[in-house]
Amino acid sequence: SSMTYLDKGVVFIGSCVSDSQLIQLNKKPVDNAYFTVLETYANIGPIIDMELFDAKSQDWPRMITCSGCDKWGSLRVLTNGIEINEICVLPFSRFKSAFPLKLSMDCNGKDDSLMFSNFEQSVILEQQGDGFALCKAECFIRDASTLYVGNVVYDQVLQISKREIRLIRVKDLKTICSFNCKSAPIFSCYCNGWQFVISSKNTVTLFSI
Question: Is the pTM of this model over 0.70?
Fold first, then answer.
């Protein structure tokens, strides 16, 4: 977004979509490059979506953001408003939504997983120590954008995409029931934990869980 020459071959490169850098220009190539990165300055913007993640292994909540654009996109975790740590980089871009989940029966009411969705697919990360790993459970809709996913009554998880609704049991991560909406795609939805409503074309439908 901006480039400023400082002095003695030192240049500041500022970015509004990724981290900014301070580089040193070289007269001769070093590692096949005519510059050396002296310092990198973390940038959490632009923030596409964010969630307050109340982790079971922490005494205080953390804020996790979908930061950056396109190939520079990453997940950032903010603690105490001071430190910014990149916890993982996923092989797809354009995150549009993030949802905290409780997928363990012994999580004591704390979030232990996150689902991220773009316009084409959804991915779930499980907390492992201070980091995250991909969740491989087959019960979730992965090949579509997720409109809503969250914990609901009776230790279950509800996931809604444009063309399918799934109710998943947390105990063994098995699909209890599913509802196909291919003939009338869902445009919007809302859930209060024990009921949910969807709208498709000229129809609004209320479900009780």
Answer: no
